[in-house]
Amino acid sequence: MLKELLLQFIVALLPVFAFQLWYNKEQGWKGMPIFMGIFCGASMILCMLTATSVFGYEADFRLIPYLIGSLYGGLPTLAVLSAIYVGIRIPMLDSVWELFSFITFIIVFATLIVLSIHHFQQASALLKKRKGLQLMSGMMLYYIITITGFISFSKETWTFEMFLALLISTTATLTATWLFIFMIESVKEKQLLHEEVKRISVNYRNEVEKLQLFIDETSFGVIVVDCAGRITHSNALAKTVFNLHTNFIGDKGLLGVDFPLIFQHGHGDTCVKMLVQALNGKKSSLVPFVNNDKILLLTTIPLRTSVNEHAGAALLAQDVTELRHLQDEVGRMERLSLVGQMAASITHEIRNPMAVIRGFVQLIQERSPKSQEGYFRIIIEELDRANMIISDFLSLAQNRALIMEPSSLHEVINELVPLLHADANLRGQSIDVSLCEHLPLIMMNDREIKQLLLNIARNGMEAMGNKGSLNISTRCTGSKVELRIADQGVGIPPEQMKHLFEPFFTTKTQGTGLGLPLCLSIAERHNGRIDVESQEGEGTAFIVTFFLPEARAC
Ligand code: ADP
Ligand code: MG
After folding, report:
1. What is the CA radius of gyration of the chain?
2. Does any ligand 1 atom lie closer than 6 A to the CB of residue 64?
């Protein structure tokens, strides 16, 4: 009998084994009623077909797939399983007593199952086991009562074997019920765990990608190290701002490299020191650091885990070189404006007495002997030069609103060309003008642009000595108009380049150093820019660029 019971046990648990396979394929609970209907139905049929007779009563585990299948599958499964049960069982019954007891069983327990389905499906694994065991105990009790009734009805007596058989089959049924629910719940738990792990790993990957993207795209050079000092993150900017050793950059970039190795000896020492301090928990922010021609602001952040353990450190560097240049530029502009203010205030004071002096000098010159004429000429020339310096000052300081109107740059150039030709001829030089075909009108103040062109052209001629040609050309590209004045003069040494537009910077004994600052302020007033290209010994080109509004683009 034990062998048969074991077979029954396995057959009753068949749906669970199938469930594990089905679950693996389907990865979900969809289709549960159909699955339970098919597999528990098959299991019930097999249980009934392989049932063993215990004193005239079939002892089998058909109730396990019936009960658990219905509880998990819900009402449709209960209906299918009940139909299978009734369809197979009724033809097997051979007494009215059996028929009555079976029909009562179906009515009572099907109703109980219907009432339990919702609670069962919502319950935790523990409650499900309890609920399943309660229902199964009820069914077994009913089974024992009917057997007892049958034995007393047929006037038989209980034997020890009968009692033992009943005990074994009841215990096995309850155990199988518990195992059935336990195994299905384990699969469910495994699935939940699997999904949770998947969700966490996807989240983790997203976070890491986001962090890397942030580090890659940020305008800071970033190096992140773990608590052992190995690099875990870095970006391309870090390599340039820190001027790192390139021989450590492998397939994975700097990943895994010990941070002290990547910094150059000498100027990288500050970074190493700051990172070591950060790894020891000390935060430092905005430490200025000069690396070659770059000015950096360094910040280190000690990194900690949520439980306050050292997790590493991050070094951030902001390249403020541009900012510093901008500050210098602002300083220069401020100086320029100061010069302007000074000029404005002293001009009247100086110009008037100078005009008086010039007038009297001329008067004395007329009354003086011819032999002293040379001296007077020098006095008057020098007075004129001083006057010219004051005029330049005044132009630079000019703050009043300019009258701008749409004008042709070509016309301005053509008006100046005869004057420039005359100047060039005197010096033994030539002027070569090549203007583009079509040039849109530019909002400008003719007088100022003439002054700009004259200043730059004169500088060019002064740089060329007794020969050479000065080339004046124009070009229109999209939203820009370029005026290029190129000479074949001595060129400008690189170290002088950055001082060109500073007031009073001059290399000429008779120079004022105000011509180019004046040109720059004119260009800026015209929403323009001046670029300089120069080759020592070959010549210099000044390119004045005017930016056109969209509507006028060529
Ligand atoms: P200045 O002509 O009175 O010296 P500028 O401001 O016009 O003052 O020019 C400043 C300096 O820039 C000049 O002294 C000269 O050294 C340099 N420079 C300007 N233009 C040229 C040029 N075309 N070629 C070479 N050097 C130039
Ligand atoms: Mg000049």
Report:
1. 50
2. no
